[in-house]
Amino acid sequence: MAVVGDSLFLSCTVSTKKPSFSLRNDFHGVSVRVPRTAVKIIRSRVFVRSALQQVEEREVLSHSAVEGVLGLDLVSERELKDRGFMGLRKTKLVCTIGPACSSAEQLESLALGGMNIARLNMCHNTREWHCEVIRNIKKLNQEKGFCISLMIDTEGSQMHMVDHGASSSVKAEDGSIWLFTTQKFDGYRPFTVQTNYERFSEGITVGDVLVIDGGMASFEVIEKIGDDLSCKCIDPGLLLPRAKLSFWRDGKLVGKKFGLPTLSAKDLSDIDFGVSEGVDFIAVSFVNDANDIKHLKNYLSARSSESTRVLAKIESLESLGNLEDIVEASDGIMVARGDLGVQIPLEQIPAVQKEIVHVCRQLNKPVIVASQLLESMIEYPTPTRAEVADVSEVVRQYADALMLSGESAVGSYVDKALSVLRSASMRMELWSREENRQSLLSQRQLGVALPDRITEQICDCSVEMANNLGVDAIFVFTRHGQMASLMSRNRPNPPIFAFTDNNSTRMALNLQWGVTPLYMELSDDMDKNIKKTFDILRTRGMVKEGDVVLVIADVTPTCATSAFQSIQVKTVG
């Protein structure tokens, strides 16, 4: 069997020497329409040709040899064989790990169910517990062929309950009187809750309403006793350890400036721990402006940890006011709808979510939508229809990832919740293709230097070409992931397979919409890389005769002084 490469080949070399410009079309019986924007790449050498290329069959690799050179994760390989290229899920799934799913067996079940990223909330559990979870996930990746990235989520400087003395949740009944205190004590005191901030009652008056976790329960302040507050329950509900507190007056949030840093000493200790354990992402809670992210990146750079990606959580009024600056400074965004819903009116959440997703796509930063996607499944085996509609709308907005919080961390139906998230995502993605909604976004230019602008143009044109030609897949050969990320920004119809020899790049691309990252040793010879890839995939039965693949590359020879980028369209024969 041979691999036939036909249709279009476009390459662009950006040299450090004075650039020259030439455009040439060689057609050999095949009509090729070059998008107008592709011709706008000026002051560089662009070469376009169409040819029928017969590649001689080389020695077929054995399956054991294939294992060592291509790092395709187990779940993607299974989906590809079962459903084909267009059946691959594009929306990524993040699961919060907690007591309900922390054993090795439970983690493997989540991995088989499609978990792409495991999130560890540093508000909960011990350092030893986190170590064990990280060790088990890395073992799944190394020994069983999964590709699961690791994320830690900082606690942040926020006002919350420390404890109420009970072993788990406590029910606050209507009309019951509770004392919220800054006093430190051990054990259980009836109707008494410790808070973490000594000045938490400052500026609070009798009649204000204390809201627990955005509405899980509510209390009216009936008396101030020194720094403590005596409160009457007016909306009964559950009080969970470390639940967040907010105050409302006349239907508006009481703004409280605590003067606390975004990253506490505990947060920095948790970050050092995460870096030492080799986590891939750090999600920063309660980011107020871009400087919060820049300071953390400088902190990581000083510790030679630049490969750790920093995500900003949007969950406050301040962060919304500085949204674009925060998105530009960060490596990605998490829309923390739970805490955000405490700070803005509930009816504004859908529009704000949509705007954040749009800004992230414009600035080419991955975005996770989190909080209460399938909240009812913490207790019940099936979601509400409204929850499924909510998940589907997030997918329809082309968010990069969906996240389970309490549903996976403490829920009674962890695997079912992940299954619902996965099936709802895949169905909405299919519907979007059927309705032809995958039109190119009017993109904001990101690059300033000529090579960066050329890269953007090539990726934009490549996605348009892939959609127009109806190719089955897009293969990207990349060392740093930039072209794969830019391709993902355009949300193409076919799936993107990113081949890289940089493991940190592979794990970072795990968060990008529609990108399946694969570890593969790359040479400076692109033809050899492409030939080896097709040989491997054909041997594994993951490509078949007639499959059409658009191939794009930004692999620069290690000894070169110029950047080389190319586009090819190949047909498996």
TrEMBL record:
<feature type="domain" description="Pyruvate kinase C-terminal">
    <location>
        <begin position="456"/>
        <end position="556"/>
    </location>
</feature>
<comment type="similarity">
    <text>Belongs to the pyruvate kinase family.</text>
</comment>
<dbReference type="Pfam" id="PF02887">
    <property type="entry name" value="PK_C"/>
</dbReference>
<keyword id="KW-0670">Pyruvate</keyword>
<dbReference type="GO" id="GO:0016301">
    <property type="term" value="F:kinase activity"/>
</dbReference>
<dbReference type="InterPro" id="IPR036918">
    <property type="entry name" value="Pyrv_Knase_C_sf"/>
</dbReference>
<dbReference type="InterPro" id="IPR011037">
    <property type="entry name" value="Pyrv_Knase-like_insert_dom_sf"/>
</dbReference>
<keyword id="KW-0067">ATP-binding</keyword>
<keyword id="KW-0808">Transferase</keyword>
<dbReference type="InterPro" id="IPR015806">
    <property type="entry name" value="Pyrv_Knase_insert_dom_sf"/>
</dbReference>
<feature type="domain" description="Pyruvate kinase barrel">
    <location>
        <begin position="89"/>
        <end position="416"/>
    </location>
</feature>
<dbReference type="GO" id="GO:0030955">
    <property type="term" value="F:potassium ion binding"/>
</dbReference>
<comment type="pathway">
    <text>Carbohydrate degradation; glycolysis; pyruvate from D-glyceraldehyde 3-phosphate: step 5/5.</text>
</comment>
<dbReference type="GO" id="GO:0004743">
    <property type="term" value="F:pyruvate kinase activity"/>
</dbReference>
<dbReference type="InterPro" id="IPR015813">
    <property type="entry name" value="Pyrv/PenolPyrv_kinase-like_dom"/>
</dbReference>
<dbReference type="GO" id="GO:0000287">
    <property type="term" value="F:magnesium ion binding"/>
</dbReference>
<keyword id="KW-0547">Nucleotide-binding</keyword>
<keyword id="KW-0479">Metal-binding</keyword>
<protein>
    <recommendedName>
        <fullName>Pyruvate kinase</fullName>
        <ecNumber>2.7.1.40</ecNumber>
    </recommendedName>
</protein>
<dbReference type="InterPro" id="IPR015795">
    <property type="entry name" value="Pyrv_Knase_C"/>
</dbReference>
<dbReference type="GO" id="GO:0005524">
    <property type="term" value="F:ATP binding"/>
</dbReference>
<dbReference type="GO" id="GO:0009570">
    <property type="term" value="C:chloroplast stroma"/>
</dbReference>
<dbReference type="InterPro" id="IPR040442">
    <property type="entry name" value="Pyrv_kinase-like_dom_sf"/>
</dbReference>
<keyword id="KW-0460">Magnesium</keyword>
<dbReference type="InterPro" id="IPR015793">
    <property type="entry name" value="Pyrv_Knase_brl"/>
</dbReference>
<dbReference type="InterPro" id="IPR001697">
    <property type="entry name" value="Pyr_Knase"/>
</dbReference>
<dbReference type="Pfam" id="PF00224">
    <property type="entry name" value="PK"/>
</dbReference>
<keyword id="KW-0324">Glycolysis</keyword>
<keyword id="KW-0418">Kinase</keyword>
